[in-house]
Write a structure and sequence with these properties.
Elements (H helix, E strand, L loop, with lengths): L2 H6 E2 L2 E2 L3 H27 L10 H6 L1 H14 L2 E7 L2 E7 L9 E9 L2 E9 L1 E4 L2 E5 L5 E11 L2 E11 L4
Antiparallel strand pairs: 1-2, 3-4, 4-8, 5-6, 5-9, 7-8, 9-10
Amino acid sequence: MNNHTEAHKVDGEFRFTGKHMLLIMLAFFGTIVTVNGYMAYKASNSWTGLIVKNGYVASQDFNAKVEEARRQSARGWVGEIAYVDGHVTFTLADKAGKPVQLTNPVALVGRPAFEGRDHRLALVSMGQGVYRMKDALETGPWQIIVTADSADGPYRLEKRILVKDGR
């Protein structure tokens, strides 16, 4: 036997040395540091989790927003948001199915859990209660919030859509 083999075996048995312990410790802590680094990277490059910057300030408007949502619901308007042929399309009709005219329709488009891709689109009226704007959305889930003004008050509609193959 050579000297290297003899240093690890005593009477044919395996002998645990300081080198073995060092390798185990390096593997153990190396794994922990690697996983923590990966998790820190993912956390810093994804959604912050914040919905509002200041919950107290947002709570001050809560009752007014609930009342506005009740008024909007009482109108009976039917809105629809879709992504068709590379365009964000929004349609709005009243209870009788007649088109509703809006002013300043805007769509906030973004990923549900990632703020880095959020952007605003000024929707253009195509007539007959249809509003749209060209936008290149990648495959995956998107959240679209449409806000606008009408003669009956503000309007808001929020919807999540799933884009498949850029359509």
